[in-house]
Amino acid sequence: MSRSDTAIDVWSSLTWDDLEQWAGSRSLARGRAYQHQNRVEDLAVADDGQLLATVKGTERYVVTVRHIERPGAADSIRSECTCPVGENGCKHAVATVVALLDALAENADLPIADTDDPRWDILAGRIPEHDEDLDDDELDPNESSATKGRSLGRRCPADWDQKIREHLRGQSVEELAELICSLTQRFPELRAEFRERIALSEGDVGRLVTQARRELREVTSIQPWRNDWTGEGEIPDYSRLKRRLERLAQSGHADEVVSLGRELMGQGMEQVEQAQDEGDTAMALGDCLPVVFDAVVQSSLSWPEKLLFAIDAHLEDEYNVIGDAADALFDGNHSPADWSVVADALADRLKQAARSAPGRDAADGDAFYCNYIRDQISNWLLEALRRAGRQDELLTIYETEARSTGSYQRLVDHLIAEGKNTEALRWAREGIEKTSRRLPGIAAGLAGSLCELARCRRQWPIVAAHAAWQFFEQPGVQTFNALCDAARKAKCEKPVRQAALRFLETGRCPIRITASRKGRGRTKVDADWPLPVPDELALLLHRAVTSSRPHYDALLDMAIADKRPDDVLRWYDCMQDAAKGRGGDWRWQVVEYADCVAAAVAKSH
Predict the structure, then answer these.
(1) Which of 194, 216, 373, 372 has its CA nearest to residue 289?
(2) 86 contacts 23 by C-beta, under 8 angstroms
(3) Which of the chain's ends, N or C, has fewer CB atoms near its CB within 10 Å?
């Protein structure tokens, strides 16, 4: 029996944004993966559009989801599930909704959720949730729902397990063999299970490895994609490969699993990189990896080789597919000698990466990628040296790599942690000088470290100078208040506040950088500006001081925050005048601020 269109009209307005707001991005991604793995069973729709389904998770759970069309309401979707999460937005409920959307996209007929369906009683807690309880063959069609619930409620899993065990024990060997053969014909997975068991018992491990490798290559050859609007797409199913790997590992063939794992991570990571989905492929691949890393622990590899296997996997993983699958391996009680072997191997790799680094004329993208790879290797090298007890070698690595890849922040953080603040100060200044033009983000981070060093030393004029740089770079309420607070500690709040307001009104900065043939420029400071301008900040101030544009948006935000309605109107009028004269950015800001201005002056004007 199919469900009428009117019963599912309530779902027609649902969007992916609605689902994410309801369940969260994590549950949405996991729920979609569950649906792609065909875990939703017996989906049905009630007369009022309420969904009812069974979802295979750690156990089999009963789910119901209701959608009430209330535009803008965060609680328009409500769900109940017999899983531990229970209410509202679990992955099983998300999978149920995705299954409905897929069915609608395919114009599939959906069965009616009968009022006598025992799953309603399971959700209401009137009968326990067991697979056997949902078997219609065991129910008398003439029984009422309540009677069904009472008869089903007397059957718990332990009872059924005992009944099945007694039944099987009462069969002859020949009868059992015929029964199992008939089941293998009905259930392909059971047939595959016996084929693998027989192959292992006959010592034919090579055959199973070949089958697993064939499955691996087939599943990683799929080009994953997913259309969120139509629900169409193809996501690789790693479940069969995972089962084969588990079978090999459980049978004591960990080395074979490790060999397959190397191929899996290489080809799987490449597939994830090319996937056009919402992380479904990465999640499916990641589900296989605990089996691989467990096999690494059990394999015949030496402990340094096991650690390097896991490190190599992390170096290839740019999408956090591995997650915490390898944590148990790293957390093991490895000896310093093992870590020392790992450190030596990584040191050799770092040298190779340095020799293959692109020259000075290489494209910025190529240089950035090579530096990124070197940083990843050196991070693991530094960790291995620490665990090997070779701390005296750390500083050389930090310093060499800072100048080679621009990783000054890592060096400065290390020096501060070691209490070597004077050296940290020197390296931070060098880093800003080397990176301010080409890598401004690194330079800004180093400036933050310098500010913290000055704060620890209670050098308030230097702290205020850094706050001034932040304000000139990003004028706004927050940076203005931070500047005034820092200037107060430096005992020069009044002149700093006046200069800052003048900068907002006119765009004229009290610090100016003049052009220079050598590229560094000269710094000129207004006579009434009371704060110092350290050399490292002069390098960073270049962008802020080249603009002569007023910042009416910041002045407006400050007037609104301070509840000064006359000033709100004053600066909004200035913004409108600027829009008439220059246009451009001011025009959209006039529109953007209109409602805020109206609300700010509603009571006074």
Answers:
(1) 216
(2) no
(3) N
Within 8 A by CB and 6+ apart from 454, the residues are: 462, 463, 466
Lowest mean pLDDT among 54-63, 191-200, 241-250, 378-387: 191-200
CA distance readout (Å), 104 to 230, 469, 475? 9, 56, 51
Sequence-distant (6+) residues with CB within 8 A of 357 are 367, 370, 371, 374, 404
Alpha helices for 106-204 (secondary structure H): 118-124, 145-153, 157-169, 173-186, 188-201
For residue 403, give the H/E element and its range. Answer: helix 394-405
Where on the phi/psi map is residue 315: left (φ > 0), alpha (ψ -120 to 50), or beta?
alpha
Between CA 517 and CA 521 the distance in angstroms is: 8
pLDDT band, residue 233 (cuts 50/70/90): confident
Residue (of 15, 3, 85) closest to 47 by Cα position: 3
Tally Cβ neighbours within 10 Å of residue 593. 21
Phi (first) and psi of residue 78, to 5 degrees: -130, 140
What gap in Å lies between CA 386 and CA 587, rounded to an integer? 57
Which of 345, 311, 341 lies closest to 329 in space, CA to CA? 311
- Specify the 3-state DSSP secondary structure of 278: coil
Mean model confidence pLDDT for the chain: 85
Q: Tokens 């959608």 label which residue?
A: 67
Angle at 340 between CA 336 and CA 341, to 5 degrees: 125
CA distance 308 to 345: 8
Tokens of 376: 């990843």
321's tokens:
């597919």
CB neighbour burial string for 549-583, b if at least 16 within 10 angstroms, e if fewer: ebbbbbbbbbbbeeebbebbbebbebbbebbeeee
Residue given tokens 């009944």 in the structure block: 163
Residues 6+ apart with CB under 8 A from 385: 339, 343, 391, 393, 394, 397
The DSSP code for 128 is -
Buried b / exposed e over 444-462, threshold 16 CB at 10 Å, is: bbbbebbbebbeeeeebbb
Say how far apart CA 408 and CA 428 lie, in whole Å: 7
Other CB atoms within 10 Å distance of the CB of residue 510: 23
Q: What are the distances in angstroms from CA 256 to CA 155, 237, 321, 330?
A: 44, 21, 22, 21
Q: Write the burial class of residue 227 (CB in 10 Å: 0-12 exposed, 13-18 middle, 19+ buried).
A: exposed
Identify any residues that bridge with 298 across adjacent strands, giving them in sequence order: none
Q: Are 422 and 515 in contact (CB under 8 A)?
A: no
Contacts of 334 (CB under 8 A, 6+ apart): 303, 307, 387
- Coil, strand, or helix at residue 51? strand
Alpha helices in 9-68 (DSSP H): 16-23, 25-36
Q: What is the pLDDT of residue 149?
A: 41
Which of 503, 455, 446, 509 lies closest to 476 in space, CA to CA? 503
Whether the predicted pLDDT of 545 surpasses 70: no
Tell me if 62 sits within 8 A of 81, measured CB to CB.
Answer: yes
Is the CB of residue 446 less than 8 Å from the CB of residue 402? no
